[in-house]
Amino acid sequence: RSELMRVPGIGPKTADAILRERRRQRIRETGHLRALGMRDVQKAGPFMLLDGKLAEQQLSLF
Q1: Whole-angstrom distance, CA of residue 36 vs CA of residue 20
Q2: Percent of the chain scored above 90 by pLDDT?
Q3: Where are the chain's structural domains?
């Protein structure tokens, strides 16, 4: 949790939501992060991997 909260745009509620979701399934796209309550995915992109790739390098399907 503390490591996630070091990422820009992730606070305690979002970190907890991400951890809960990661127990259920892999987070594969930025839209999933937005659904979990993350407001500024662009800021966090360089610090996160989604399905093994940097978030900013993934192409959106929509």
Answers
A1: 10
A2: 15
A3: 2-57
